[in-house]
Amino acid sequence: MNKTVTINIAGLVFHIDEDAYNKLDSYINAVRNSIQQDEKEEIIADIEARIAELFSERIDSQTGVIRMSNVDEIINIMGKPEDYIIEEETFDSKKNFQSSVNFKQPRKVYRDGDKRILGGVCAGLGHYLNVDVVWIRIIFVLLFFLYGLSTLVYFILWIIIPKARTVADVLEMKGEPVNISNIEKQFRQGISHSYQTLKTNGKSAADIIRKIIGITLIVFGAMGTFGSFFVPFAFNHQHNRMSDSMLYYNDSIWGLPFWTLSLSLFLVSCLLFVLLILLGVKIAYPKVKHIGLIAIVLGLIWAVALFFFTYGMINTNISQLKSKKTISESLEKKISQADLMLGTNDTLKLIFDKDSRIFTINDTVTNGYKYGEIDDVEVKILESTIGKAYIEIEENLFTKSSDHYFHHLSVLGKTKTTVATVKFSNTLNYNYSIKNDTLALSNAILATLNEFTEENEVKVKVFITPEQTVKISGRDEDYIEDVDLEPGTNYYRFNRGKLKYINNDIIN
Amino acid sequence: MNIENTKAQMRKGILEFCILSLLKDKDCYTSEILNMLKDAKLLVVEGTIYPLLTRLKNDELLSYRWEESTSGPPRKYYRLTDQGDLFLKELAVTWEELSDAVNIITKKQ
């Protein structure tokens, strides 16, 4: 079986067996090399026209194909490449003739596909330098230990040095003149045969190397893609940590929630590795289709994500750099009064309770509590001058509000300003209850847990008339100011403006 | 000493003269010239003729024109120029002298 190629000689089209074509091509090249005149191409055109003429006389009318025998016949008629040499001086002809045959032509660098291990670079260099290929290979192996230099050099040479494809190339590579006798020698050695089969041979060393490179890329790409899933988490974690800058990150600044920033970061990281996988697939399995298209689409998405993320981060940083704070701090004083339900000569029972709210408010903020006990209550017992008992509570609530003015770029590049207001306050109302003659005070002040919690304070004043008595348990000594309580039950009454301890028996 | 080489050299020397002589009376295309030369057994392989024709053309002894052919590629018809005509006449004289000389010498032996 023989592959046929279609050729065009001097405007005529012929079908020719591939081996016959190779020989004819080599022959014409050899002739071209023999002709020493300036009008080479004109002469070659004449010769080709004659060959076309001879072919059309000889063509097999049944098959219509030019065969090897036809080409051999043509070459016999036309003569050897040496026959095309005409000498200006007939006397020197013999010398010229000899020299043209034996003169070693300058070598050309080709990759030798016959002696190759990978791409035939070393073999080609060996021919060119006229050195045994083994030495070149040893040099390349030694160079590998110099930072893998030879790998890079080899691949570059593999790319830039053409492969010896035709018999003429092989002869030029070996520095032998391209003439018909040498070409026939090559044919006899079966070298050209191996050149024809190279293309159709499936598994070659290069294929295997390509598979290895491709699969390595796929594996690295897959690992990178997997790793990319953790990038947004790391970023979010950092977001929580960036106390001062990102705390004021406000979705309204660029109208998109924070997770879009995370998503774009994920895409920026992930898509690169996906592209690496695609490259690996393309190298290892060149026949897979549509990879280029997918890669272009993913590349565009990547570019958009990169832009998005960059834009977001630049904006956040600009707004941090240019943000202005205006802070106002104040103590808000709140005074409330309540009458105590007490008869003229009654005794006020003063007790302290735990504030139940501290156990019920389990809010989302740190440690499960949004509010905490900030202080024990200090209670003052004072003389009422208005003839009835009452309680006065003075709450000093610390409020701090700060306005952040963020300057940032909008999509169109204009600067926009957004204000983010942060306010700290939220002290709970001081809790107490009045039931008949009993005043139950909370034993602690509760306030929002923040850095200003300690600034809050509550003053509790209990007013009684001189006729009235207050009953306090000795356990509650710590809460009462200016009074030294005895263990057990204590009764106190005002006597000439001063709170006096009185005996239980007197009252009763 | 290769006898074939010597024969080829002898033929090559008079090839130019013969080509010009062929074109003296009528214009010919390349294959016609080839066929006549081969019939006369002056030419063994065709290859030699092409560089020679080109050289003669470059020396302005010949000129050519293209003509379409019914059975193949277009043909190059060569024609003797005036300068070629003069050249041929000089060669013819030289050839006469040479062939006489060769005859005299070879018949002596």
Structure description:
- The complex is a heterodimer of chains A (508) and B (109).
- Chain A is an alpha/beta fold and 508 residues long.
- Chain A contains 18 helices and 16 strands.
- In chain A, α12 (231-241) packs antiparallel against α15.
- Chain A is rod-shaped, with a radius of gyration of 51 Å.
- In chain A, 26% of the residues are buried.
- Chain B is of the alpha+beta class and 109 residues long.
- A 3-stranded antiparallel beta sheet of chain B has the order 1-3-2.
- The longest helix of chain B is centred in the C-terminal third of the chain and has 27 residues, at 82-108.
- The model of chain B has no long low-confidence stretch (mean pLDDT 85).
Write the layout of secondary structure elements.
The complex is a heterodimer of chains A (508) and B (109).
Chain A: E1 4-9, E2 12-17, H1 18-34, H2 40-58, E3 65-66, H3 68-78, H4 93-102, H5 121-129, H6 133-144, H7 149-160, H8 167-174, H9 180-189, H10 191-200, H11 205-228, H12 231-241, H13 243-246, H14 251-254, H15 258-284, H16 291-322, E4 324-339, E5 347-353, H17 357-360, E6 371-376, E7 378-383, E8 390-409, E9 415-424, E10 432-435, E11 438-442, E12 444-448, E13 457-464, E14 469-473, E15 489-495, E16 498-502, H18 504-507
Chain B: H1 3-22, E1 28-29, H2 30-39, H3 49-58, E2 62-67, E3 75-80, H4 82-108
Antiparallel strand pairs in B: 1-3, 2-3
Number of strands of chain B: 3
Largest interface: A-B, 31 and 25 residues
**Outline type of chain A:** rod-shaped
Task: Summarize model confidence as the mean pLDDT of chain B.
Answer: 85
Helix content of chain B: 55-70%
Mean pLDDT of chain A, nearest integer?
75
Record keyword descriptors for this entry.
heterodimer; A: 508 residues; alpha/beta; 6-stranded mixed beta sheet; 5-stranded mixed beta sheet; 18 helices; B: 109 residues; alpha+beta; 3-stranded antiparallel beta sheet; 4 helices; 3 strands; 13% strand; globular
